[in-house]
């Protein structure tokens, strides 16, 4: 992503400048200096402009990501959470033919509907906190969801998955912690349900 490096540089610059805000505020309180007030206003304006630029570009990237889904006929709303700069996808996402799902991994925090990356080998969404329906991970080899707090439906795996046992252990741990709300479902080669617990 070409904008990533630019954003990283801008974030570092703004972090450095933001550290000066406290000192500038103390100076302003002591002196009431007009120049200090102007510096503070300028820095706050720069931060707001950066936030708007980030929101616009990140929203475009998420829109492109959502457009790659198979269920394009279903309405999906993209909501930007101003508090933490991440996105809520209002609706279901069906990525049934993609083999990797690690795009924009730090930008998505919630998917409110069914999540169907059924052919994905890798699911790397470290900031995803909620899946509002079923989680179809039939062919997944690696799941990285360290911040997941809720999966409201069932999770699906294929019986012939070489990592099945370790994936079942992860799903059982999620259920034990109250994250996975429904069942673990195992499917055979023909797509038939062979085990549910």
Structure, described:
The protein is α/β, with parallel strands linked by helices and 197 residues long. The chain folds into 2 domains: 2-61; 70-196. It is built from 3 helices and 14 strands. The chain has a 5-stranded mixed sheet, covered by helices on one side. It has a 4-stranded mixed sheet with strand order 9-12-13-14, covered by helices on one side. Strands 4-7-10 form a 3-stranded parallel sheet, with no helix packed on it. The two termini are 41 Å apart.
Question: Which secondary structure elements does this structure contain, and how are they paired or packed?
Answer:
Layout (H helix, E strand, L loop, with lengths): L1 H30 L2 H34 L9 E5 L4 E5 L2 E2 L5 E2 L6 E4 L3 E2 L5 E3 L5 E2 L3 E2 L5 E3 L5 E2 L3 E4 L5 H13 L7 E4 L5 E4 L1
Parallel strand pairs: 2-5, 3-6, 4-7, 5-8, 7-10, 8-11, 9-12, 12-13
Antiparallel strand pairs: 1-2, 13-14
């Amino acid at each position: 992503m070409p904008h990533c490096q630019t954003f990283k540089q801008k974030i570092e610059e703004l972090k450095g400048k933001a550290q000066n805000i406290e000192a500038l505020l103390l100076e302003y309180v002591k002196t009431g200096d007009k120049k200090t007030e102007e510096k503070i206003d300028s820095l706050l304006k720069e931060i707001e402009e950066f936030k708007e630029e980030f929101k616009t570009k990140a929203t475009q990237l998420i829109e492109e990501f959502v457009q790659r889904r198979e269920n394009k006929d279903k309405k999906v709303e993209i909501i930007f959470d101003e508090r933490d700069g991440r996105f809520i996808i209002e609706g279901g996402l069906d990525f049934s033919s993609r083999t990797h799902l690690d795009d924009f991994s730090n930008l998505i925090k919630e998917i409110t509907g069914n999540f169907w990356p059924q052919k994905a080998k890798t699911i790397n969404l470290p900031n995803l906190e909620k899946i509002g329906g079923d989680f179809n991970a039939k062919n997944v080899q690696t799941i990285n969801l360290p911040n997941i707090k809720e999966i409201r439906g069932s999770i699906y795996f294929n019986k012939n998955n070489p990592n099945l046992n370790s994936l079942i252990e992860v799903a059982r741990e999620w259920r034990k912690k109250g994250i996975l709300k429904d069942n673990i479902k195992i499917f055979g080669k023909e797509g038939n349900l062979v085990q549910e617990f």
